[in-house]
Automatic annotation (TrEMBL):
Protein localization: Cytoplasm
InterPro entries: Aldolase_TIM (IPR013785), FMN-dep_DH (IPR000262), IPdP_isomerase (IPR011179)
Protein name: Isopentenyl-diphosphate delta-isomerase
Annotated catalysed reactions: isopentenyl diphosphate = dimethylallyl diphosphate
């Protein structure tokens, strides 16, 4: 099967497999504030991740790598959404375009549609410094996402089997690139230990990509008869991943992602300490079912709803939302207690 066909398969299986709300964010409750002393029009949604300033805490996370007509069309539509709504956007893995120049148009269309927006390039941790520079140049990208997807590779018969040296390659890229590096998971979460190692080699932005939304073990298993289904329930839910990554990581910006679907999910992710929130499966599903205008409407609605939630909490900014009191219950509380995360 060609790489392009595999990527199309991912899109269709992602929609079919859907999102299961296993991210743990339902274990987070806000403490109601009857005296917020704030008006809706004073709420500011600007945020920063590393050295990057964003006008919205939400962004379109990486989805369409691999090339081909269908992915180019999806990239074009997502770029139109990003341009209209002012949110940042990541493309899917660009390795196909680096290996086969014909595929470049799949990605460069993103910059053509959205000349001034914040765009993230994307590669796996097998990338070299030269490939990382090429991926960034291809899009005039403002940052580079490096994805970690060990479980997805293991479940694929044609996937990688050797994961040595990834941290060293990431360090070299982080030290040699002129734009910030974001290291991200793809739905299995990231622990305190991993985020600490990344910070030590100079990574300043981490996207926890937690368990509970799009599930690449399920997606890969559905595509074939030999099942590695023991990986279907594998991973750290998004809520615990955010809390672990934020615990001792001064100087590192944490991005929440993995199953984020509602404005309340976004608000809770930020209250756990995230500076921004990535959404992939949710936007893909609206785009393919209802079209570009509906994704734009969804983003505008989320911005309005977030302003209302922040007003109710008395939080005029993203940094003040990160500080509001929350109560953590259920298995998220249990996990964080066991792991010594407060
Ligand atoms: C992805 N994701 C992804 N991530 C990445 O870093 N590079 C990639 O090429 C892709 N490709 C891709 C294709 C499709 C169809 C989907 C749905 C997702 C992973 C994505 O960025 C995100 O980490 C996970 O999907 C979890 O977030 P959601 O979907 O639960 O919001």
């Amino acid at each position: 099967m060609s790489r392009a066909q595999r990527k199309i398969d991912h899109i269709h299986h992602a929609l079919k497999t859907g999102q299961h709300r296993l991210h743990g964010l339902d274990d987070i409750s806000f403490v109601h504030n009857s005296l917020p002393n704030l008006s809706v029009d004073k709420v500011n949604l600007n945020t920063t991740i590393g050295e990057l300033s964003l006008s919205s805490p939400i962004f379109i996370n990486a989805m369409t790598g691999g090339g081909g007509e269908e992915t180019e069309k999806i990239n074009r539509c997502l770029a139109q959404v990003a341009q209209e709504s002012g949110v940042a956007m990541a493309v899917g893995s660009q390795m196909a375009a680096i290996k086969d120049r014909v595929e470049k148009q799949t990605y460069s269309v993103v910059r053509q549609e959205n000349p001034h927006g914040v765009v993230f390039a994307n590669l796996g941790s097998e990338a070299t410094v030269e490939q990382a520079k090429e991926a960034v140049d291809m899009l005039e990208a403002n940052g580079l996402q490096i994805h970690l997807n060990v479980i997805q590779e293991l479940v694929m018969p044609e996937g990688d089997r050797d994961f040595t040296g990834a941290l060293h390659r990431i360090e070299k890229i982080a030290k040699n690139l002129s734009v910030p590096v974001i290291v991200k998971e793809v739905g299995f979460g990231m622990s305190y230990e991993v985020t600490k190692k990344l910070k030590e080699v100079g990574v300043t932005i981490i996207d926890v990509g937690g368990y509970g939304g799009t599930n690449f073990s399920r997606i890969e298993n559905e595509r074939r008869t030999k099942h590695f289904s023991f990986f279907n329930e594998w991973g750290m839910p998004t809520a615990v991943s955010i809390a672990e990554a934020c615990q001792f990581q001064r100087g590192t910006s944490v991005i929440a992602s993995g199953g984020v679907q509602t404005t309340m999910d976004i608000a809770k992710s930020i209250a756990l300490g995230a500076s921004a929130v990535g959404m992939a499966g949710r936007f893909l599903s609206i785009l393919l079912n209802d079209g570009v205008d509906e994704v734009i409407k969804e983003i505008n609605d989320v911005h309005e709803e977030l302003r209302f939630i922040m007003t109710a909490l008395g939080a005029p900014s993203i940094s003040s939302l990160q500080q509001v009191p929350i109560v953590i219950s259920g298995s998220t509380h249990h996990w964080l207690t066991e792991r010594g995360v407060s």
